[in-house]
Specification:
It is a single chain. With 320 residues, the chain is α/β, with parallel strands linked by helices. The chain has eleven helices and 13 strands. The strands form four sheets. A five-stranded mixed sheet has the order 4-3-5-13-6, with helices on both faces. Strands 8-12-7-11 form a four-stranded mixed sheet. Strands 1-2 form a two-stranded antiparallel ribbon. Strand 1 (62-65) and strand 2 (68-71) form a beta hairpin. The longest helix has 24 residues, at 73-96. The chain is globular and about 65 Å long.
Length: 320
Amino acid sequence: MPLPKATGPSQDLTADLHKWRAFVAVAQLGSITRAALHLDQDQSVLSRRINALERECNARLFNRTGRGVHLSEVGERLFPLVRALLENAERLELEVNGQAREPAGEVRLGLLPSTAHPLIRRLFSRLRRQYPKVHLRIFEGSSGQIEEWLTDSRVDIAILYRYAEKCPPGETALAYVDSYLVGAAGDALTQAEEVRFDALDGLPFILPGAPNGLRNTLDGIARTRRITIAPLIEADSLPLMKSIVEHENMYTVLPLHAVWQEVHEGRLSAAAVRDPALGRIISMAYSRSKGPSRTVMEVAGQIETLANEIAGEGVWRVSP
């Protein structure tokens, strides 16, 4: 009996994965120029590939601006599907090559700047020794950005702050930290071990811009206490916040691990905020549109181990 002939659509959009890799690189980097450098391709070739892909899709995938490109509405819908397609192709390749037993591939990690320093250097060092085929891709951003990245699967794992008694369902509590009023070295208010919340009234602050978990918490308590917390500067850059506090005699509110080195070097001082305390949970969350792969779970396990080790050094604690 003759075998039936294979049939399929006249236009197979998934046959060439190179064009979809180009699509993802441009989407993540926001620039065809930067994507070409990342992929080690000629910019004109990459541009033609994106144009050809848009013709095949019969839709514009990117909106072009003077500052680069960003995903169109159609591109936003396709992005998580394309990520899943490429990850499945990578897993298939590893299986075919007999490498699936060992964790391998790219893991995208979204971090707040204040959580990056205690974790990333140690995590990279450990993965390099134990799982050399795992490649970390680090994204730093604000809490709002990281939430978006989780939703559309631009990151596999995110480390976030949660201002509640427990984490949302499906997340893992890595550590519990207090909030500290941070001032310049020698500042009278932050030389004490603790400071009452009401002492924050009218201070010259540099704080993250709203909406932000810390700002929401500070503003809510301030309204209840009928005191004023009105930052002179709003900034989401941790290095800038610390520099302004150190050199301009201003204040900010941060967990102790974010200023650990500067306090020990005598460049900043910090007092725990009390009455009420401003506790926060360092939480680990996974991409919301797909389950974590084995490699992602291995990296998550290493992060949990490191969180416990850092707690042993006094930087944070692993129980409320």
